[in-house]
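Sharing a chain and its predicted structure for anyone who wants a worked example. Both blocks are below, sequence first, tokens second.
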Amino acid sequence: EHAGDLLGARPVVIPLSARDALSVKLLYNKDAKNDSQQQSSSLWKRSNFATLEDYLSSTLTATTKIKTKLLNPLGVAEGI
């Protein structure tokens, strides 16, 4: 709550298992043809890492990266 008050936005929380995601990535990323196997793996689904990747790719465009970088120090300073 405090971070949301300070930054003026509610943080997005995505529960995931980095250990499971890394295991799947190491197992399947040796060969590009295995991408569909990775996506259908039960371990990959359980890790919920695809949700994080989708969120980051949809929200972190070049424009939003620059805007966030420029506005964040100003927004934090206003909250202090």
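Comments welcome. The helical segments are 2-7, 18-28, 35-40, 42-47, 49-59, 62-79.
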